[in-house]
Amino acid sequence: MSLPGEVDVIVIGSGPAGLGAATELASVARVLVLDRETEAGGIPRHCGHFPFGLREFHRLMRGPDYARALVARAEASGVRIATGVNVVKLHPGPRVTVTSDQGPHEIRAKLVLIATGVRETSRAQRLIGGEKPAGVLSTGALQSLVYLEGKRPFRRPIILGTELVSFSAIMTCLHAGIRPVAMIEPGPRITARRPAIVYPWLKRVPVHLSTNIRRIEGREHVERVVLAGPEGESTLAADGVIVTGRFRPEATLLEGSHLERDPATGGPVIDNFGCCSDPSYFAAGNVLRPVETAGWSWAEGVAIGKTMRAGLQGKLPDIARHRVTTTGDAIGWVLPQTVRAPENAAFDRFQMRVNRPVRGRLSLRVAGSEYASRSIVSRPERRITLPLPPTIGPVEILLEEK
Ligand SMILES: Cc1cc2nc3c(=O)[nH]c(=O)nc-3n(C[C@H](O)[C@H](O)[C@H](O)COP(=O)(O)OP(=O)(O)OC[C@H]3O[C@@H](n4cnc5c(N)ncnc54)[C@H](O)[C@@H]3O)c2cc1C
Fold it and tell me: How big is the CA angle at 328 (ends 327 and 331), to the nearest 5 degrees?
């Protein structure tokens, strides 16, 4: 496809969030979705397992079927999707610079949506020591090899991490006839929510809590892994390591751009309309925070697509915004980070996470008066939400621990 010089809306990223928003906008605008991968659909394309699609198609689907259905629905509504196109720079205007096999190119638009998703933290970023043999992969890389290329990179790997995606890693292994030797969790508890906890037990994968990887050993391929646990050092024979989770928004595009970034989420600062610090840029899906499910990201894309549609029709309230401040050092992040008058907003609740296990009272004040409060017992990775107030003013979220 030859790329146009101008459209109404550019959507960067063809995952559930980008496609949800694009489909919503297609009836009122010329929408162009750009993705650097060779196929559209985002992360679900290489999650060959259930459960996807309940919110969007009211049935249980595997990731690749779900991704294809989202793409088909977007194209049927009139969205143009260009793959193999890497967006490399965001400019005011709005205008984006892209590279593709046609060379560098610039595209102008009335509005741009950033929906570039998340990525996992690599071995190097986690400072895992030892040799550098082949066989150390992220879950995403493992899923691409298994589901997209039909490969089996190892037979007896160790899985580092116990987030929800770590259980996806077990499913991917079992699908490919790979038998994980163990799951390793540096913290004292499994991070994922409750139903996932029984899965390694059912599949007979031992879980080592309060344990970390000290060294990976092996010349060409992983041969063994040295662990540091409550009883000291131990060695496990393994031919691979899957480094899972510790997600970070894929926000490389914000570096060197004019858009404000939130150090707490790692993604762009937005308001309750999904609007960035430059009102011609919006953001949706997992680029906003680490990390939510495909269904959640899709619903967010649809809601923000609706507000962008109102924006194109000149129906958004003025952008005078109030900052959301937080008190309590256990608050990891809060989204949206700014608020404006709430009529027709995409978000009706704040989303937040804590950065360590907490027990306490959470309250929300607007212009100094308490609007909502509740007790919470929570852990990192658990979803916490609070209602957005109907009145406008500076918002403070307080967490008092017991
Ligand atoms: C390894 C892994 C496994 C996961 N497993 C599950 C699971 O089993 N179930 C679940 O519900 N969720 C899972 N998730 C969470 C996942 O992020 C969501 O399911 C969902 O895909 C988020 O949708 P999104 O549209 O925000 O982003 P994505 O689906 O990540 O889509 C983002 C798209 O943006 C494109 N992109 C990024 N930067 C650029 C650029 N500069 N130029 C052009 N294109 C760009 C990417 O190629 C990608 O296609 C997983 C995430 C990861 C990383």
Answer: 100
